[in-house]
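Bit of a strange request maybe. I'm writing a small parser for structure token strings and I need a real example to test against, not something I typed by hand. Could someone generate the tokens for this chain?
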Amino acid sequence: MSTAVFPGSFDPVTTGHVDLIRRASRMFDRLVVGVLVNSAKQPLFSKEERVAMLREITADQDNIEVSSFEGLLVDFVKEQHADAIVRGLRTPGDFEYELPLAQANHKLSVQADTIFLASAPEYSYISSSAVRELLRYQADISGYVPETVLRYMREHGVVSN
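Reply from user aminoacidic:
Good idea to test on real output. This should exercise your parser:
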């Protein structure tokens, strides 16, 4: 059984994330979406909320699991008995950032190779940080995040519409 880990902070989950998750899930028997807990950042949503949102968004796909983790990605990958790490690329800058991380992960553990998935063109400009910036100025983000995320944002007073 092939298993991959798709890691990220997912704060918030974007339509681009969902597209990459669904596409990656077709490539593996089991896809574990790993919600990274980064203590250096102040998240918009708690890890529990991010996990809950992703579970709701992916509930229609039996081969997708969602879990949170802290620490090194390679340790989480080992824990999940994964064969691959999936990372999304939106821009050449993403590749420049991701390649050294993939090489370091390989050096730490040759158990899983990193696979880069190019974002679909219609999602290439969407990032969690862009969504947070739009939120600062109370811009409409409905085209950037799934309806589940919008609902959570309304419930938490992050957006009013």
